[in-house]
Design goal:
This protein is an all-alpha fold. The protein is 57% helix and 0% strand. Helix 1 runs antiparallel to helix 2 (62-85).
């Protein structure tokens, strides 16, 4: 018969077992997760395009509508970056 060591005997018998690290399924705010970044960029560009179209239909000039949409979109992006820094 082979002599197998008993796991409960030895110098590590009194120490608790090391548990494997668990990861939380929440990826919000994870700097390594780039998919949420590109999703937000896509939604923002769609919103800017829709806003350009609606303002263009409302005032009748697509150039002014595009200027207004770009200005508002830039203000939102700047506010988001300032909020991220704090």
């Amino acid at each position: 018969m082979t002599d197998t060591p008993n796991p409960s005997s030895g110098p590590s018998a009194g120490r608790p077992q090391a548990r494997p690290e668990t990861t939380v399924g929440n990826t919000v705010g994870n700097p390594d997760d780039i998919t949420s970044f590109w999703g937000l960029i896509f939604i923002g560009l769609c919103a800017a395009g829709l806003m350009t179209f609606l303002i263009g239909r409302l005032i009748g000039d697509i150039t002014i509508a595009l200027t207004l949409a770009i200005t508002v979109f830039a203000a939102i992006v700047i506010a988001a970056f300032q909020r991220m820094q704090t």
